[in-house]
Amino acid sequence: MNAETKPSRLRDTRITMAHGGGGRAMRDLIEEVFTDVFRPDSDEDQARLSAEALREPGARLAFTTDSFVVTPLEFPGGDIGKLAVCGTVNDLAVGGAQPLWLSAAFIIEEGTEIAQLKRIVASMAREAAIAGVRIVTGDTKVVGRGSGDGVFITTSGVGVIPPGRDMAARHIRPGDVALVNGVLGDHGATILAARGDLALSSPLQSDCQSLNGLIEAVLAAAPGTRAARDATRGGLASCLNEMAMSAGVTVALDEAALPLRPEVRGMCEILGLDPLYLANEGTLVLFVPEDQAGAALAAMHATEAGRDACLIGRAVEKGTIPVTLRTAFGGTRIVDMLVGEQLPRIC
Amino acid sequence: MNAETKPSRLRDTRITMAHGGGGRAMRDLIEEVFTDVFRPDSDEDQARLSAEALREPGARLAFTTDSFVVTPLEFPGGDIGKLAVCGTVNDLAVGGAQPLWLSAAFIIEEGTEIAQLKRIVASMAREAAIAGVRIVTGDTKVVGRGSGDGVFITTSGVGVIPPGRDMAARHIRPGDVALVNGVLGDHGATILAARGDLALSSPLQSDCQSLNGLIEAVLAAAPGTRAARDATRGGLASCLNEMAMSAGVTVALDEAALPLRPEVRGMCEILGLDPLYLANEGTLVLFVPEDQAGAALAAMHATEAGRDACLIGRAVEKGTIPVTLRTAFGGTRIVDMLVGEQLPRIC
């Protein structure tokens, strides 16, 4: 019998404070909603993992964490659960780590529909299988109505960086080219449309996806890859500013080369938003030596997640401005970090 | 110049949505409030750790996570930050792991005082130093007023279980004795009094403390120790029920042996609460073979955290009831798991 056909032990259809109290109601919730799906190895609170991959001399352990507070909880192309898996998988992968194990901690607002929670958890299990990671430990807390917002999920991830691999923004050199795996801003634009405040109907989907497979393909083809980041909150602009400042270079972008869907471009024009600051959840930014750019692009084009990969600019000697953009009209403008907030709670 | 005397780069005294937006305000907040205190090794998002201790054949990696949603955020004997460090350190330690690295993810409600956030972060850094762990990676999200409750913190922890060490509730055998390191219910009673709804004034303090040092001392003195747990949410009663069911034994407690402060006993009598269900945050439950009980108790008595350690009962052949209590009047009663909630948001 699988979890869907098993009769429910839960007496409620919505979360109550008792589901966080440490007693029987909590145990029933955890068993039915979480452990029946994630199937941990034991009933101990902690995961105990045999770390063969870490035994190799020079291998390092990578460890990262992210809380997810996106609203709405479900949106075209994903939901908070898929996002929580992809986000932490990608944080590990952009540092060169092979993601292995995830933890998942849930802060659930009283009144949340248990059926919705089950959909979110099923989505996490699906995405974990796609990314090849295991969700090995977790926690559940319940807060009263008005002290939370449906569900917040914090995932942490552990992975292994193979010996000799050292990707970091500080390794970027003048002359390196900047690549992205696909179109920009889909996630931010999708969330904006999904909130429904704007009476926009849109065919957009979040780009939310795990990037670890794509990154391994790039590293096999272009082993000299200097650095990778996923351009999430703050968009491509904030991501490139951080990388440029870390490396002590200027990044010169070419506006004509930036891949944007007409729908995203249109939405930004209507709302006065800049797509360079829209959040992405499956957008990879890579810096590679120029002589490996072709190999890296070819490797990306061979994958679903990298089908629309392209070159968007290059690193040059450090000027006074970390990131510049050559506009379609031939001028140059500053691409600053996001100041304030363009759109809150997109992840 | 240390973090306290450095002039603040933050223009606000309270958290705004911009502090979670992924741009400059967020970067300033993270630098001033978090990285100036936790001092990670690099500006990359992920921690990269040399895992020497994991290289030993037979060593296992332990991984655990917990969200903390306690209210109030600060209380006698601790605060949400200290709790978030102790809780995860203890989750690792009770499984026999030596805690090494922690992540910390913050979900902060708009309007939270930055000064309070700084106190909480300073408290985390202090407790991490006491426990001998490093906070190596983190995340910050901001939610609007009414979508959170001040600060929620999720800590995850990675540790190493030395070769040959295997503590788990399923190893408990009939005849083993049950020990605790000190008085019961202080944390739950303290939170209850601190909420102020009850017009109770109390000299109580939370027992919130890191137990890894105590556990290592016990394991050195009583290497046959079968299992350890910290009796948190759901109190001693729920913890012992879980252990008894895992092991397939009955645990027989002796009421006269249960260590309780007169203040906690009094508060429970007034409010009709059962101290066996009150939460603890530094209370260790151990099962050891009878012939090592003396050594384990002596090792605990030699430490500050184990000064009041005592024997509270023993495992017997499995009966129909997982946990029983011989009362002071000579009768026996069932000690069930907590049903519903005794007190929410105590951790």
From TrEMBL, chains A, B:
Membrane spanning residue stretches: none
Domain PurM-like C-terminal: 173-321
Annotated PurM-like N-terminal domain residues: 56-161
Gene Ontology biological-process entries: protein maturation
Pfam families hit by this protein: AIRS, AIRS_C
InterPro entries linked to this entry: HypE, PurM-like_C_dom, PurM-like_C_sf, PurM-like_N, PurM-like_N_sf
Domain of life of the source: Bacteria
Family named by the database record: Belongs to the HypE family.
Record protein name field: Hydrogenase expression/formation protein HypE
